[in-house]
Design brief:
mainly beta, 7-stranded mixed β-sheet, 4-stranded antiparallel β-sheet, 11 strands
């Protein structure tokens, strides 16, 4: 089970850090990712992190501004979001346990958090 938190309202240019807490130590062996979704649109890939934090990949739209990290001792993954823009406004979801290598595909993750709202005002 995954629990996302840390969302809120922030002005453009500001920062937020999202957390994704997992129950169970199995999370430590999972590839995990962040996605986001706006009303009427499909859930889109934000970034992913390998099981040991050794590899990360990001969507072009967030590259250089967002950073994914994880603390396996705490069964927690993070999304540090800097230089936020109004177009980053969305519900952010964490996901874990990738099947295969298509880390940007929503269909390849077994576990999902409930989502946390991020709103960036201009």
């Amino acid at each position: 089970q995954l629990q996302a938190s840390g969302g809120g309202l922030v002005q453009a240019g500001g920062s937020l850090r999202l957390s994704c807490a997992a129950s169970g130590r199995a999370f430590r062996s999972y590839t995990a990712a962040w996605f986001r979704q706006t009303p009427g649109n499909e859930r889109e890939f934000v970034g992913h992190i390998g099981w040991n934090g050794g590899s990360t990949n990001y969507a072009d739209s967030v590259k250089g501004r967002f950073t994914i990290s994880r603390d396996n001792a705490k069964n927690t993954m993070y999304l540090q979001m800097n230089s936020l823009k109004p177009e980053d406004t969305a519900v952010y979801y964490c996901a874990a346990q990738l099947s295969g290598s298509s880390y940007s595909s929503t269909t390849r993750y077994k576990y999902w958090g409930q989502g946390t709202q991020v709103t960036v005002s201009s």
